[in-house]
Amino acid sequence: MRQAIAICLMAAIGGNLSCSSGKRTASGEASDNGVANVATVSSGTISRQPSAPTQAGPPVVVYKTTKDYSRNVPVGLSADGTRVVSYPAVSDVRRLPYPTPLANGYLLDNRGIGHNVAFLSYTYEEYAALPATPSPEELLEKVIDKHPLLEIHFLGNRYQYKDIIRELNERIEAGELR
């Protein structure tokens, strides 16, 4: 029995080591160094900068929008903006996962947004009160802005921060998110 467990552990460790090389980022870029990339959308461009390797965990996404959508439900659109490809269930927003305000108009995401985020006309309260989760087609009709982002920054994961709001505000005020 111990021998079987040892073999399984060795296989798992070997699998993890072999899986860590040649990873691809969301944009398809190869990354052999095991270091996460930070992506930034600013004025329609995306830049990437290396960050320290981190333990897996919930991502830290900091962003700015063209208007105040902090009370509106976000959804993920296809790259061409013609389909809703990710969205919350009504039960997912009952705890009202508003973004956390940060310095200089930045927001800390608490819902799970990405580059292709769009915002619905539904507020979190309105969405949570719906009797059932709308279909992707119904949600697409409720999109009020398909291009709301001025900037988006992927800053590792929440486990690497001791006081996330204070630390993010320090980075913002130091000009690190430009």
Strand content: 25-35%
Helical residues, percent: 10-25%
Please tally the helical runs, counting DSSP H or I stretches of 4 or more residues.
Answer: 4
Order of strands, widest sheet:
8-9-5-12
- How large, in whole angstroms, is the Cα Rg? 19 Å
What does the overall shape look like?
globular
Task: Tell me which oligomeric state these chains represent.
Answer: single chain
Number of strand elements: 12
User: What structural class do you assign from the helix and strand content?
Assistant: alpha+beta
Write down the secondary-structure element order. HEEEEEEEEEEHHEEH
* Poorly predicted runs of 5 or more residues: 1-50
Overall pLDDT: 79
Q: Summarize the main sheet.
A: 4 strands, antiparallel
Query: Ends: how far apart?
Result: 55 Å
Summarize, please:
It contains four helices and twelve strands, in the order αββββββββββααββα. The chain has 178 residues and is an alpha+beta fold. Strand 6 and strand 7 form a beta hairpin.
Describe this structure in words.
There is one protein chain. The chain is an alpha+beta fold and 178 residues long. Helix content is 22%, strand content 31%. The chain has four helices and twelve strands; from the N terminus they run H-E-E-E-E-E-E-E-E-E-E-H-H-E-E-H. The protein has helices at residues 2-19, 124-128, 136-141, 164-173; strands at residues 23-24, 30-31, 37-42, 45-50, 59-65, 72-77, 84-86, 100-101, 107-108, 117-123, 143-145, 149-157. A four-stranded antiparallel beta sheet has the order 8-9-5-12, with no helix packed on it. A four-stranded antiparallel beta sheet has the order 7-6-10-11. Strand 1 (23-24) and strand 2 (30-31) form a beta hairpin. It is globular. It starts with a helix and ends in a 5-residue tail after the last helix.
